[in-house]
Amino acid sequence: MESWVWLLLWGTVVGLDLVSVGQVMFARPLVAGTVAGMIVGDPIAGGTVGVVLELFALDVMPVGAVRYPDYGIGAVAAAATAAGAPGALGTGVAVCVGLGVAYLGEVGIRMVRSRNTEDMRRNRAALEEGDESVVIATHLRGLLRDTLRSVAVTAAGLLLAAAAYRWSPVTVRGAVLVTIVLVGAAIGAAAAGGMRLSGRGLALRWFGLGVAAGVVVVVML
Questions:
Q1: Mean pLDDT of 31-41
Q2: CA–centroid distance for 169 within its chain
Q3: In this structure, how many other beta carbons lie within 10 angstroms of the beta carbon of residue 1?
Q4: Distance CA 206, CA 75 (A)
Q5: What Å distances lie between residue 18 and 23, 40, 81, 127, CA to CA?
Q6: End-to-end Cα distance, the chain
Q7: 88-122 vs 43-57: helix axis angle to the nearest 10?
Q8: In this predicted model, what pLDDT tens digit does every residue of 146-200 receive, in sequence order?
């Protein structure tokens, strides 16, 4: 039970780090998943699901008003699901849980943005005048909303993780197939995101060189 409390706290920190507080990369799935795995005593499982979700996350840029899943909290839930499961038998199901939680986080982000916008509209006159007390109060309310979102999404993710861990109907063969499909999809998403961000010309050539170097390193290891 104690580890689940720490997971809830860690997921909240991860959710806030995405935009509202810090932005020191705790929200990256690789970091979030690995630390969550350490909390539950299985850092390898946490790092594994973190890598897969990190590949999905490379397809988006969480900047400005763009819509994006909260892959960080998703990685926390995925790590809780995969902990103790042998290899691919837990990875596929865990990543499915992580993706579901990530998109739930996206819904929460949109709700928080909507409430923040309404709050700013209600206090527009005072904000435009630079009323310090109103500016601070508006900021704190927005921070509170994102904190509540992070707690709620993390809690929902941990409940889903517990349910998947105990009652997953997937067979061994099905678990392996799900893992293969999701890893392939993650690699495709990362490649598409990398090519889109690289654009054309020299940047795209550097991207291709990086991919080739990565393949060489993996083969040599």
A1: 93
A2: 25
A3: 4
A4: 29
A5: 6, 22, 22, 25
A6: 39
A7: 60
A8: 999 999 999 999 998 888 766 666 666 666 776 777 776 677 766 666 666 666 6
Neighbours of 107 (CB within 10 A): 14
CA distance 81 to 6: 15
Of 29, 102, 22, 18, nearest to 62 by C-alpha is 18
Angle at 67 between CA 162 and CA 150, to 5 degrees: 40
* Higher-scoring residue by pLDDT: 174, 38: 38
Phi/psi of residue 201, each to 5°? 80, -140
Distance CA 80, CA 76 (A): 6
Q: Using CA of residue 72, residue 74, residue 76, residue 78, what is the dihedral sign?
A: negative
- State the DSSP code for 199: -
Please write the tens of the pLDDT for every residue from 53-76.
998 888 776 666 677 889 999 999
DSSP 7-42: HHHHHHHHHHHHTTS--SSTTSHHHHHHHHHHHTT-
Q: Angle at Cα 218 formed by Cα 80 and Cα 14, nearest 5°?
A: 30
Instruction: Spell out the residues 6+ positions from residue 65 whose beta carbon is closer than 8 angstroms to its own.
Output: 113
Please enumerate in sequence order all residues whose Cβ is within 8 A of that of 109, keeping only pairs 6 or more positions apart, or say none: 19, 67, 68, 70, 149
**CA–CA separation, 71 and 106 (whole Å):** 9
